[in-house]
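During the no-cost extension, the postdoctoral fellow (Dr. R.K.) reprocessed legacy sequence entries with the updated structure-token encoder. One reprocessed record is reproduced below for audit purposes.
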Amino acid sequence: MHRFKNILLVAQPGIDNASAIKRAVSLSSPNRATLTVMEVIEAIPEDLQVAINAIPSNDIVDSIVTEQRSQLNALVREQGGGAHCSIRVVSGRPFLEIIRAVLQEQFDLVIKPAGAAHKSIGRIGSTDMHLLRKCPCPVWIMQPNDASKYTSLLAAVDIDADEHGTDVLSRQILEMSTSLALADSSDLHIVHAWSLAHESFLRSHRSGIDESEVDAMMEEEKSLRAKWLAGLVDDIGGRKNSDAVDYLKPRLHMEKGHPQTIIPRLAEEHNVELIVMGTLGRSGISGFFMGNTSEEILKQVSCSILAIKPPGFVSPVNAR
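Re-encoded structure tokens follow.
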């Protein structure tokens, strides 16, 4: 994963962050990338503040920050973090502080253990979902006790004539998943879910189109999608990794149906540990959230997720 030079690892309070830190260190050390380990302490609840009102709130926060920084330092050293790693503990609303740090310091990857927060969606916490929707750089949500190396990865690619930049996004997805699969010597599955637009209407009596004509349209669409997918894979192999595709021998899955059904099923069938996927939403529109398809997939899978924003995405969060 040589493309990442400035990585932000977000430690999740109250859980074991060791596997996420180990992965972040393994990404940063060989490439001399800068690694920042950050933890965000949320505001002190009102009932706790009342119970300890004899102590100034600033002193309490300072004490917590000092203690957490010491614990993070020890954990990072245990996982091999060295000179290129810095520790930071701040207070505030987690997703806002994380995204502001990304905007201010131009981090190119955020890694965070999944957090089952109080408004969690499946195994993805509320802070995780805010990051997946609003963080401008790739976000890697890792499940607890994630393996140090993955054995099975899935890259989900898509094409949409109405969505500017989907080819660029699909190339980024394949480049990242190929690089990671090479580093981990893992199986790589590439999935493209396709369908014929408005097929149900075209096959209804209201359309006035013969069934055989619709079948021909279906075959033409399938052929176009297959050609696009093969070209995408060949292009990645030819431009970036001349031997990578031959070595990995990725399995292509081009299946007819909805992505929110096909991707979770394939992930389960092939024991996928990481899904690399794009978040949907028209480019260039500030604050446009991740599409329903991506969110439906996230609700159904239990593996880690590496999510990439489309070209031109603008975060709705201000740097300050």
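The first strand starts at residue 6 and ends at 10. Residues 261 and 297 are 8 Å apart (CA to CA). The remaining legacy entries will be reprocessed before the final report is submitted.
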